[in-house]
Amino acid sequence: MDQARESELLPVPYFHVVFTLPDELNTLALHKPEIVYDALFKSAWETVEAFTGKDNKAGMISILHTWGQNLSLHPHIHCIIPGGFVDRNGMWKLSKAEGKFLFPVKAMSKVYRAKYVSFLRSSDIELEQSTYDTLFKKEWVVYAKRPFGSPKSVVEYLGRYTHKIAISNHRILAIDDQTVTISYKDYRVDGQKKIMTLSHEEFVRRFALHILPKRFVRIRHYGFLSSTWKRSKLTQLQSQLKGIILTSLSFVIKGSYHKACPCCKTGQMITLLTFGRRGPPSEFYKSAYEKYSSLKSI
């Protein structure tokens, strides 16, 4: 399954972006979860499209999480977004700074807020104007993490989070006749680990907050990563990108020479690959270690 998923991805930077709903919408999420969560998906995708440009096609994989560490209601979606887009001619274009930077999150948060509120206004939910005023006064959170090291890292992330639930067994420390003790991270104090004891009733109440409506789809694919985008087009795009990478490497090997090697002082160094701050993907470490081990055994 992992290999199948990895084959669907492109050899480009992938960014992890999180769109969060403000606390003021928690009560509404309990009473109208399908509308509230559908609007979360739609507004996030339309925000990405707005920054990509109307004549370009972006891609996105989104996963809905509704919980915080203490099992409170905290609706947000984790999005995996390629660092580029397909233009009107079907050619791949990197995002800003050659794929090292996606979009400005402060600008994204304002567009996201406006689009989400627009979806609420167009729904059958009746809210007072004062509620909309409160939503517009508050800063909405869009958080962009550093890009993944490789498509394989994307698959590993998706494997960990796609079927995650509100609390895993290892966080339940103790259960007695009246209480349940759990561990959690308090991100208000730099992710410090803490312990909380809840009554059975309160534990069940909090866990039940995260039961989604029947048949609700919590993992969604958009743009050129969706099932509606023709598989043949994706294959063509993958071939196009592989050709660009091979051409770039060939150019580097032929003409990008540097100063003498600092070890032997005679040979010329050649740049083959350049890595970002996260360093090389894990498979490079494994390959280097294997080569090192074979040399030691000689």
Characterization of this structure:
By secondary structure, the protein is α+β, with helices and mostly antiparallel strands. It folds into 2 domains: 2-166 and 213-232; 170-208. It has 9 helices and 12 strands. The chain has helices at residues 2-7, 26-31, 33-52, 105-122, 129-137, 151-161, 200-208, 231-255, 282-296; strands at 14-20, 59-67, 73-82, 84-86, 92-94, 142-144, 172-175, 179-186, 192-199, 219-223, 257-260, 268-270. The strands form 4 sheets. A 5-stranded antiparallel β-sheet has the order 6-1-3-2-10, sandwiched between helices. The protein has a 3-stranded antiparallel β-sheet with strand order 7-8-9. It has a two-stranded antiparallel sheet with strand order 4-5. A hairpin with a 5-residue loop joins strand 4 and strand 5. The two termini are 38 Å apart.
Number of domains: 2
**Order of secondary-structure elements:** HEHHEEEEHHEHEEEHEHEEH
Give a count of the beta strands, DSSP E runs of length 2 or more.
12
Biggest β-sheet: strands ordered side by side in the sheet: 6-1-3-2-10
Q: Tell me the overall shape.
A: globular
Straight-line N-to-C gap: 38 Å
What are the low-pLDDT stretches, counting only 5+ consecutive residues below 50?
Answer: 245-257
Percentage beta strand: 15-25%
Question: Count of helical segments?
Answer: 9
The biggest sheet, with number of strands, parallel, antiparallel or mixed sense and barrel status, is:
5 strands, antiparallel
User: Compute the gyration radius: what is it?
Assistant: 23 Å
Can you give the mean pLDDT? 81
Offer a few descriptive terms.
5-stranded antiparallel β-sheet; 22% strand; 3-stranded antiparallel β-sheet; alpha+beta; 298 residues; 2 domains; globular
